[in-house]
């Protein structure tokens, strides 16, 4: 992948999310007609193709409080990996170009070093967990700058969330956080099918495995979130979620609110399917 440090280009094809700004605006308008007025510090949103989970992601993003900067936290990393950040000056968000908030990034890097974390590196990979949130963040906050981060599912997630809160305060920025993760990846496509196939498998994912992770998130306990995802394969990017919880707690969040939960099976019944949830952390 060639690097253009002026702009991080769009890489996902239109099958993930529309490549037309008007279509994006129309879809999001339909999905967000009913406002929830949660004024969330941070949210959890799924990062599958919009056909499957765009509605949940949009509802979550629209529950965020007003802000100057949006930090989008993705994952798809392993324990022990470094925190990754986008170093480009701008992002192609399809609906508009958005500036990278270098001031917040620099302050964050300083805070992480003070916390003893040196493992932060430029993100040179193509990854859907952050990119698919770009148009939603850019549309919801038309003047906001963005920060692109990917977070490993280990202790660095908690430290990152706290460091983000301190960095925002240092920069006198009002920061909102999007944590991007999908839930249980079940079936032969993913090599994970402890309950076989059929109705019992769907019921187990929906009401036990996904629900266990959701309950951990709603409790705002980062150890439970990371542990459930690790032990039960219940989320693909739990580090992002743990970081969002830590950020929210540092800002005074008192509770998590479940906005919605569903499975790809609900739209497209198949032996292999994925869970999705939208959650907000609120005062």
Explain the overall architecture.
The protein is an alpha/beta fold and 283 residues long. The protein has one domain (25-282): LigB-like (Protocatechuate 4,5-dioxygenase, Chain B, 3-Layer(aba) Sandwich). Helices cover 38% and strands 20% of the residues. Strands 2, 3, 4, 7, 8, 9, 10, 11 and 12 form a nine-stranded mixed sheet that branches. A three-stranded mixed sheet has the order 1-5-6, with helices on one face. Helix 3 crosses helix 6 (155-171), helix 7 packs antiparallel against helix 8 and helix 8 packs antiparallel against helix 9. The longest helix is centred in the last third of the chain and has 20 residues, at 199-218. The mean pLDDT is 96.
Tally of contiguous helical segments: 9
Low-pLDDT segments: none
**Separation of termini?**
42 Å
User: How much is the radius of gyration in Å?
Assistant: 17 Å
Largest beta-sheet characterization: 9 strands, mixed
**How many structural units, i.e. domains?**
1
CATH class: Alpha Beta
Kindly report the CATH topology: Protocatechuate 4,5-dioxygenase, Chain B
Q: Tell me the CATH architecture.
A: 3-Layer(aba) Sandwich
Mean pLDDT: 96
Q: Output the helix-strand order.
A: EHEHEEEEHEHHEHEEHHHEE
Helix vs. strand class: alpha/beta
Can you tell me the overall shape? globular
The total strand number stands at 12
Estimated share of beta-strand residues:
15-25%
């Amino acid at each position: 992948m060639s690097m253009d440090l002026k702009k991080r280009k769009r890489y996902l094809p239109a099958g993930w999310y529309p490549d037309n700004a008007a279509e994006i605006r129309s879809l999001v308008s339909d999905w967000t007609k009913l406002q929830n007025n949660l004024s969330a510090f941070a949210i959890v949103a799924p990062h599958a193709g919009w056909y499957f989970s765009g509605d949940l992601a949009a509802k979550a993003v629209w529950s965020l409080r007003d802000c100057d900067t949006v930090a989008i936290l993705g994952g798809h990393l392993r324990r022990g990996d470094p925190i990754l950040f986008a170093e480009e000056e701008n992002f192609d968000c399809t609906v508009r170009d958005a500036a990278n908030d270098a001031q917040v990034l620099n302050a964050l890097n300083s805070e992480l070093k003070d916390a003893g974390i040196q493992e932060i590196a430029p993100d040179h990979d193509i990854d859907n967990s952050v990119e698919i949130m770009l148009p939603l963040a850019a549309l919801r906050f038309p003047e906001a700058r963005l920060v692109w981060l990917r977070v490993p599912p280990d202790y660095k997630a908690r430290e990152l969330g706290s460091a983000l809160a301190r960095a925002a305060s240092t920069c006198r920025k009002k920061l909102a956080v999007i944590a991007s993760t999908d839930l249980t990846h079940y079936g032969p496509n993913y090599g994970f099918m402890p309950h076989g196939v059929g109705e019992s498998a769907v019921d187990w994912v929906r009401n036990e495995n996904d629900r266990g992770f959701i309950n951990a998130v709603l409790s705002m306990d980062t150890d439970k979130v990371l542990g459930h995802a690790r032990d039960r394969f219940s989320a693909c990017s739990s580090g992002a979620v743990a970081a969002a919880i830590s950020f929210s707690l540092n800002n005074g969040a008192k509770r998590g609110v479940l906005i919605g939960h569903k499975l790809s099976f609900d739209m497209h019944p198949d032996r292999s399917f994925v869970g999705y949830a939208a959650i907000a952390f609120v005062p």
